[in-house]
């Protein structure tokens, strides 16, 4: 067991950890010792090959196949230098004012979050892509929406010189996507923050982390040799995400005094819908996600976004098998895709737990509201596909594998709740949230509104696990804004928090 | 991987019989797998075995159990195991699993077909055949 001593230890390097590391870096310049422990590897640029299975194994927890306990939903989240910001598409949406109001966290003001959000929109170069960089898969979505009178908005995306490989979710092979691995972490390291990769934190004790460094077949070797470490720090900040932060606290026995630990887990359950055109379209080349439609966010609790996935991910998202499935896949160059994201509600029963080995599990119950939202989203998406000229549509809860154009007037009958069977359809999520939610009551929350764990002034949380309910939009910017807020509070109280 | 079997000098998650059954299922789920040559089949099986090897032991055991269920569930009706069913009979069996009244069986089938699709569509060499041609070279190579 090797002993290490720091003033501040940060666990995780994604949107939360990267932000905290950079925002606390001025303390390092003042002589404070700050370390960031990241479970995943630091990949060299040449290791981003874009190969689907290879990159999933390198970057995602369980190769992207982490499932809820009842195996009805897959949760995708990364472990790497940069965390999930390495694999997100970079779609940059501020959290809606109504969501912050509904969160009802004392002291958490929308205007303050928005100002911090704008800071990271600028810092990470989020902007709307020029029209010539928008491919046909995206343009068809916009055309379909406009033909139907639906609103269609363009995402700001945080990319540099995007070359349109379409491989964002496998880690950009051109280094164009500007996640924390490209912006905040290098800045923090330049200012003196140590980053230790391939380092899994096993347990937390009083101002102490028990961690293990392993040799990874990918990426640069960890700066610390493989082995067990005891890291002492005056202040510990958990930024390991909405599954691993609560799991780490639970396996450390912190759930005894925090009954809400792990609870109120939300994740924006999502379905991929696919349509086939009569001709090849530009789909996998070009930035995959440029537009969204939020016309139904308030009324039906779903968001539709453009998307384009890879062959295996697409194949498993389709219902069915055999010749009809193969026929659709064989003309991959004719496929248009839409992602339906559901704005789910936090429930006490939806939660992260750990098993006897300390491994995390997620219990997620699909409410009627979520299932109804899926059906409504599929019907609207199908209308958009047909309005964009698609010849046929594949919806996971339809009466038949393909709905042909001549049946487009019967979508409500063909896409119905009775066809939506859990375990039969491929529900995915890439937005885990909650589990260490903010609040004032230790019986129903885990941290204070400032992200400090109730009763443990040396332990803070600064990631998506703070969300008391789902964000309703892609969450990374809100994670950065909240982490910025947590870091500011720490900086302001550094004298007391880091006293010997 | 204490419960793995060793065959041909390498560690295997699946027995030879389970591999044969998986290939029979794969031939119905992704028909192109039935046309793979020996190297293609080996590549397919390698991807599936790699994926299984990375899963917790209980999930590997559940997968093997599900394969056995697929093998023998048709026997009372068709008087033969899955591998010896006619194509339309095999499809009927798989469709029953896909729409099974018990969620666990539907999940078992979804997991199995996911592995089949991973083994087939997850290999980069399949891309050109389906019209998928992203640049695979990494940053430095580009």
Please describe the structure with a list of short key phrases separated by commas or semicolons.
heterodimer, A: 500 residues, alpha+beta, seven-stranded mixed sheet, seven-stranded antiparallel sheet, 14 helices, 20% strand, globular, B: 142 residues, mainly alpha, two-stranded antiparallel ribbon, disordered C terminus
Please, could you describe this protein's structure?
The complex is a heterodimer of chains A (500) and B (142). Chain A is an alpha+beta fold and 500 residues long. Chain A contains 14 helices and 22 strands. Chain B is mostly helical and 142 residues long. Chain B contains seven helices and two strands. Chain B has a two-stranded antiparallel sheet. In chain B, β1 and β2 form a beta hairpin. The longest helix of chain B is centred in the last third of the chain and has 19 residues. The chains are: A alpha+beta (500), B mainly alpha (142). The interface between A and B is large, with 52 and 46 residues.
User: C-alpha Rg of chain B, in Å?
Assistant: 16 Å
Count, helices of chain A: 14
Helix content of chain B: 55-70%
Query: Largest interface here, residues on each chain?
Result: A-B, 52 and 46 residues
Give the gist of this structure.
The complex is a heterodimer of chains A (500) and B (142). Chain A has helices at 15-29, 52-59, 97-103, 110-123, 136-148, 184-190, 241-251, 297-300, 311-317, 322-330, 368-387, 411-414, 476-492, 494-497, and strands at 2-11, 34-37, 66-67, 73-75, 91-92, 126-127, 153-154, 156-158, 194-196, 199-205, 208-213, 227-238, 270-276, 291-293, 302-306, 335-342, 351-354, 360-363, 392-394, 403-404, 427-429, 459-461.
